[in-house]
Design a protein that fits this description.
globular, 39% helix, Aminopeptidase, 7 strands
């Protein structure tokens, strides 16, 4: 491979990345947040009534899925992906404000399930990319932004819960420095807990 081909490959990469812009969400993004929280949960058939109800929860400032916890990825100016991430020290308070409102989805047994996050962790709660925008670097850009937020907050660990059978997601997170660190059970499903140390999150 010639040096021209190498430089050409790098140039295309940077042009590609320049097409992705990350921005913090606002309350006006509530419906987009709701749609993609459901997408992250693999709920693709929600009716409009349920989406609008979840959007009201996303409008709140004290819930897990609040716009305050959301980052939106734009691709060529079009909303294409979403990340929900937050300080784990706030998890229990936000959970108690969220789950009673979405009991239709989570049932009544959430008080006995494992906490998804705790103090000393920055937790990636939800990550979704619209199908037509996948394989364009958007998920990686959002993960890097989560790691940047973790570093900025001075929190030592970045964490996420991943379906152990989701090979593509597993590969993506390990590529960004996450490593297996036990399991947690959420709503009756057991997930692998992955962690990244603060010292490895930003190079």
């Amino acid at each position: 491979m010639s040096i021209f081909e190498v430089l050409k490959g790098r140039l295309l990469f940077y042009i590609k990345m320049d097409r992705i812009i990350l921005q913090r969400a606002t309350a006006h993004d509530a419906r987009f947040i709701a749609e993609n929280v459901l997408r992250a949960l693999h709920i693709d058939e929600a009716d409009d009534e349920h989406i609008e109800y979840l959007a009201t929860i996303c409008c709140s400032e004290d819930t897990l899925y609040s716009w305050r916890n959301a980052t939106i990825a734009l691709y060529d100016g079009v909303p294409a992906g979403l990340m929900i991430a937050y300080d784990g020290a706030r998890y229990r308070q936000m959970r108690d404000a969220t789950f009673p409102k979405i009991r239709r989805y989570v049932g009544d047994d959430y008080n006995s399930m494992d906490d998804e996050a705790c103090a000393g962790e920055y937790y990636l709660d939800s990550l979704a990319v619209l199908p037509e925008y996948r394989r364009k670097g958007i998920a990686s850009a959002l993960i890097q932004e989560m790691l940047r937020q973790c570093h900025e907050a001075g929190i030592p660990l970045a964490t996420i819960a991943v379906d152990p059978e989701n090979d593509s997601a597993y590969r993506l997170y390990t590529l960004h420095g996450f490593r297996h660190d036990g399991q947690i059970t959420v709503f009756g499903t057991t997930y692998d807990r992955l962690v990244a140390q603060k010292t490895t999150t930003l190079q």
